[in-house]
Fold each of these.
Amino acid sequence: MALYRDDGIVLRNYKLGEADRIIILFTRTRGKVRAVAKGVRRTKSKFGSRLEPGSVIHGQFYEGRNLDIVTQAESAAVMPTLRTDLSRYGRAAVMLEVVDQISEEGQTNTALYKLVTGALAELDRDGNPLVVPAFVVKVLVLEGVQPLLDRCVTCEATDDLIAIDMSHGGVLCREHRSGDPISDDARHALMNVFDGHVRHVLETTSDQLASELESLSSRLIEQHIERRLRSSTVVDQHLIHDAEADDDSPRDG
Ligand SMILES: [Zn+2]
């Protein structure tokens, strides 16, 4: 068996047998990796606590046929607030879920790796409500699907734009509406975030608008992922399904 080292973000984990856990990581160079951590549920080891969702580790692994084995895990980034603040943990969980959905085994995605490690660190440091919207916008750009926001995707009307639908590629007027409602303020704020003016939006946004942007961005990425899954030819997911019956990792904090 080949030994390798890689950095990775723990996306989720679940029980395996009596004492082990399967850890799903998004790694810097190997994309998504599934690895067994042996014995971590028997002892209250630091090793085990480093393999919780949201942890960023320097890891050492043995390559296996189906699952690798994680033999060492050192913390690469200590993010104390992320663990103890429920709202931040919830936001981290949204981002981890997104990475879980769009990352693939054996596929390096350095831009996504940098993006998510940066966003997690930002969330731990600051906790501002635009971390998730800014993250989602950058992911959509990385995925090559920037929604049209200044006119209806169907008729090009620039007034009375009231809905947004990623499967149509952007916002829609009252007549052509589908997808989710969007306010004019949220639409303009979103345009600013796409233009990279996150700080400006943060400074000028009410709590109410920030929360609309947060739920809206979650919906946009969901719509994108649904669409991506439908067009995907990757169906070999039986391994995940078998183990997920036993899933006890926090998914919706
Ligand atoms: Zn229209």
Amino acid sequence: MATIKLSSKPGVYELPSYSLTGDLLGYLRCGLQYRYTRIGKMPSRAPVQLWFGNFIHGVLDEGFRIYDVERKAGKSSAEALAAIDADVVIETIESRLAAQGLVAWEPWLKTLGYARARVGLGELAEVLFPLIHRSEVRLTGARELKPLPPGTAFREADRYEMVGVIDVVTDIELSKPEVASNPIVKLVEDCLGKVPDHFEVIIDYKGSRRPALPPGKPTPKHPSLWDQYEWQVLTYADLRGRQPDAHPVKAGLLLYVNELLPLASDLEELRKEVAEGKTDIGASEKDIKAWLKVCRDQRKEASAILDAATGRDGAAAMKASLNLLPSPVPWDLRLKRALRIVPVEDPATGKSRIPDALKSFDDVVEWIETCRGREFHSGTIIKAWDRNSADEGTCAACDARTWCPDFSNETKPRLPAVKVAP
Ligand code: SF4
């Protein structure tokens, strides 16, 4: 009698999913901190940076939404920009974040966030919003996951999912005169040299100042922020380029929001970087000195308003934020320092730089999976996860520092000892 061989149902297969910012950049900051905050969902005690980043993203996104509605209703670009009321947008985003439990506890941080939001919705919006094609574009792709080192395998997976969200995709059509004369487009053209008539540039907002140039040789497991962000936008460029409605993606653009309105402390850092030759976009000592004086005076006036206010007075922060404006630093320099253009193709050789960026992130996923595997097999967290105490600021804000061996190694007092002869 004929028999039929029935196949058995394959086991459940879950594709590990990694987000570019939350997972890969989080792990590179410090593996152990990532394990606690991202995988273990340990809430942060002082989510200062989280508030600022979310606030600026929210403000620029809401500003563009209003602009877009006006443009679609037939208004000119100038009329659409005039319809954005900075105070209303700031209040809307502030209460939206508060509803999610994200609050700026420091009145000064709030004031500064508001002041930078005003520049974002004013000077920046004028040159950026007319170029925006879409904001908050979700991306996804699958990549090969190499076998883990012996003794660390803990799940069946030969691929992983890479996910990300592009803040802004621009659509640049050089045949349109208002686009061709746009200062952002000019900077991109100057950097890339040759560009097609119609192309895209993707933009990622960073709630920080422009970092100093990286030191000469990168350390493999601790790449500089300069390199990490480059890989991030190049990976976005690759994933975006695969979407059906995409035009050729020619560059990624990192927008360092703090450079839109630098404070005295930012200018002090700039002064040091210029003196040490560690920045690609500097200014003269004489100019920096003059700007510093204005910034310090502005801060004094803003602080006086905050000091006179009672409690956490949002209205005082709103008023004080106006005292930080206008910036004494010329707009064209602020814009140049705020924008870091990352060409997708090497301008000298024309070779795509995407494969190297993808390979770098494949390695990071392999490191994370290896740490997970070590934890799975050993049952201990601290030993299983790589740590990175290279950045003092990261450790100082880390909630794990009281029990982290690397932090105590850095800070514990060392008694004089006798060196035993061999
Ligand atoms: S204290 Fe520093 S090294 Fe330790 S877990 Fe926190 S960030 Fe990492």
Amino acid sequence: MSDPSPPVRTAVVGSGAIARGVHLPALADMGDRVHLAALVDVDEALVAETADAWGVRGRYTDVHAMLAAESPDLVVVCTPPVAHKDTVIAGLDAGAWVWCEKPPALSLAEYDEAAAHEGEHGPFAGYVFQHRFGSGAERLRRHIRQGTLGRPLVGVCNTLWYRDPEYFGVPWRGRWDTEGGGPSMGHGIHQMDLMLSLLGDWTEVTSVMSTIARPVQTEDVSMAIVRCESGAKISVTNSLLSPRQTSYLRFDFEDATVELEHLYGYDNAHWRWTPAPHADQEGAVASWQPEENVPSSHRAQLGSLLDSMERGERPRASGHDGRRALELVAGMYQSAVLGETVRRRELTPESGFYHSMYGGDARAAASALTRTEPSTSA
Ligand SMILES: NC(=O)c1ccc[n+]([C@@H]2O[C@H](COP(=O)([O-])OP(=O)(O)OC[C@H]3O[C@@H](n4cnc5c(N)ncnc54)[C@H](O)[C@@H]3O)[C@@H](O)[C@H]2O)c1
């Protein structure tokens, strides 16, 4: 029998809410597979407090100092979006694999710049899209691959969440230069990623966005119609103004409707499967029962990432597979700001929306997002 692999020496950069609440527990759940070697945060008191609480020896306020001293195998990036790209590049250049929180970067240009620092056989950068990894989504993915549901025809992708004005008191939120965008970029990206990871690439998008009620530079509501390469049409709504919160995905295939309704995470009970009238009702329902119940979670994605590291293979939600939702978000912003339908192939370095989600002209973006149509009443 071969010896078990040594623990993956891991460093977490950014010791704020998501690091403490989610990543550190997920890493601890990995047991002997992971050794948490170091924490980094620009806030020295916070990093010391967090390192004490989790029994971590290495504590740093600078990522480069940490990389030089610790040579980790894996860097987990939990900083605000504005620091993602440089931290991912620093980790890759130091020879570490990287797992970075969403949104992957502030723009497609940043994403591609970071990807250019990957090696042909690793290290690779993967991005946090935890909703792909629950057993309900994995079961649906297998059905789609096997073609048992017929063609996908129609989709609904709603992220209707509520964030009060105080939520935007955190200085990096609601700003183009630090968060990169509003609910399209920071909140609905999870549902859009799950939808596209199941249905494949999109070809064109028509979108409207507004800043209706929150003290932000970006939108607080966005709506879009998306056409997929398969021909399927998806309607998307992302809102931070919806008191009864829900995350809702609906897939209408030729032979069944599959729905997922949850809020911030799901298990098998959140999925619903309705066979088409012509389908074998009992057979369809029986084939839908997943044999295990794995909730969507950072833990599930981290396990998959560690498996990829062991095999030396590009992880899921990396490369083109990690970029798809960001690309749709860029297309949505271009469509909303310019008032036109955007084709995916137009999002090249020649487009201002490749370089920043607002297209580089903050005044034009602000005017498009707050535009009110002239009243037609007398
Ligand atoms: N996957 C999810 O479901 C999910 C949920 C919430 C947040 N997030 C994402 O996680 C990231 C962090 O969000 P949060 O809520 O934890 O934010 P936060 O503000 O609570 O924490 C961020 C921490 O990063 C530190 N920091 C900032 N710049 C740094 C740098 N250059 N080097 C080291 N540390 C730095 C800050 O001091 C802060 O402690 C964001 O990208 C956010 O979108 C993901």
Amino acid sequence: MSSHSEIVASANGVSRIFRSKTGEVRALDNVSFTLSKGKTLALVGESGSGKTTAARILLGLDNPNSGIVEILGRVLGSLKHEEMRLLRREIQVVQQDPFSQLNRRHSVERIVSGPLMAFGVGDKESRRTQVIALLEAVGLEKEHLKRRPHELSGGQCQRVAIARALALDPKIVVLDEAVSALDVSVRAQVLNLLRKLQQERGLTYLFITHDLGVAHYMADEIAVMFRGRIVERGSREDVFENSRHHYTVGLLSSVPLATPTLSKAIRDQVQSLPSPGEGDACLYRTRCTVGLTREDCKSTSLVITQGTSTHSWLCHSPVQDSIPA
Ligand SMILES: Nc1ncnc2c1ncn2[C@@H]1O[C@H](COP(=O)(O)OP(=O)(O)O)[C@@H](O)[C@H]1O
Ligand SMILES: [Mg+2]
């Protein structure tokens, strides 16, 4: 977002609709973001808001219905098979579940050397040397080479997954709830490891989490997602200290985000609202104390408001407009 930073990946107006017999889900609706070299963008939002779908599209594992995704200056979907294969080296992923993302029948050595083998890097001996160096980089040791996932703790499995993600020396790493399954103390260790690796290797992170505390610790920039849309985006300070979207404020205040107690008149209004996903009106309005009563929130298409060069939001009546300075 800063004009001085080098952009290594971007999503521009990306939409992804899943269709089924019972209807359609807009998993992503006109989503745009950029990743700056050596920085962390945190994608935050509750379960089902579209975070993993965004990650999968960035990783080239799924295709958008519309919009453009660029990785290192290449437009996904326009690449020949071999170009796409080479680009895959540059963007790797660590997922949430420490155990299920690793092949339980494989040793740590086999798991971490997997990407090297897939790209025909080195021979068995040189790969072993590389794997040992990678294990050391993530705080594991040579003695872990022969272990299998079930002989490791959750934190150690995540370290193995990180070592595997780094094997091909990628520029970008997608961390999809990568610490969410870990105990608090282990989580802190893995977060510190990720920060250290980022500094040493100049890595760019897309850091996906539903945990704002973790996002605050890790992120340079934050994009808040709600039901397939980025509702607020900005620097960490913008989003945490100058929140404009009511959903962001709700997340931050850690007040349960259930619908507040409603008067009967408002309840009737809520029931008459169009079903979510129709049109471009605000999808948060039925949970928003402001949106429930304002006509434009249910009838008028949202547009992105650019508050500052780094800070934008998707709301007709943002927080603080109503607070006297
Ligand atoms: N392959 C799929 N088929 C149908 N619906 C899907 C698929 N993947 C995701 N969805 C739906 O898209 C929405 C966003 O999912 P997801 O990206 O996994 O959210 P998050 O990672 O934020 O929890 C959800 O409603 C989910 O049920
Ligand atoms: Mg997810």
